[in-house]
Amino acid sequence: MDCYIIHYTKNVNRKNYLEENIIPKLKEKHVKNIIWITEFDREDPFIQNIPTTHTTSGNLSCNKKHYEAWRKFRESGEDYCLILEDDILFEKGIDFTKEFERVLSLLKPDDIVITIGSGIQRHGKKKGITKENAGRCTDSYILHKKYLDICKDEECYTLNIGHFMNTLLKDAKVLWSWYEPTIFCQGSQNGTYITDIRDF
User: Are 36 and 7 in contact (CB under 8 A)?
Assistant: First the structure.
């Protein structure tokens, strides 16, 4: 599968960290290509021209970059893809290859969106894959191509990306798949990254 990384280009330290510590492990076995989603930074005219009073240009940019990743996934023709935000880190003590192989081995036809990161420190009820009505974070997730029939290239800028995905899946009567133990966490949530998109 391919991996799409949601990246704000001014966060150079994050890109460097991923290239040195995360990407080599991804490419050892399961990930064929790394595609950086760098278009539509918060300063982009498209983002600046979205009318909004309830969120930031950084959040709007994040939404658009996820939509771009989904679009590129559709063009790829692959069955699955991995989507990561650029502040992810491996969970402490995790054996990435072992856990990633395990989650792939557990996938069933109704596992369409599989969240594999703890994000805002949320965890599933037990090890393996469990079904939930909502996602926990969009820091790291696996998509099956069936999701593309659910989103239908629709773009929303009144909800953040996680809430929009919740709405899409709820309307389609599809549950999220949560994998435990989580493979990734967010450096912007646990204090590893002291910079935020709002600092630029």
Answer: yes
With H, G, I as helix, E, B as strand and everything else as coil, classify residue 125.
coil
pTM of whole model > 0.90? yes
Residue 29's pLDDT is what? Answer: 85
Phi then psi dihedrals of residue 85, to 5 deg: -90, 155
Rounded distance between C-alpha atoms, residue 88 and residue 118, angstroms: 10
CB neighbour burial string for 150-177, b if at least 16 within 10 angstroms, e if fewer: ebeeeeebeebbbebbbebbeeeebbbb
Helices 161-171 + 57-76 axis angle, to 10: 50
Dihedral sign, CA of 136, 137, 141, 144? positive
Q: Which domains does the chain have, with CATH numbers?
A: 2-190 (3.90.550.10)
**pLDDT at residue 192, as a whole number:** 54
Q: Are 60 and 47 in contact (CB under 8 A)?
A: yes
User: What letter represents residue 34's amino acid?
Assistant: I
φ/ψ (deg, to 5) at 23: -60, -40
Burial of 94 (0-12, 13-18, 19+ CB in 10 A): middle
Q: What residues does 84 pair with on adjacent strands?
A: 5, 140
CA distance 31 to 29: 6
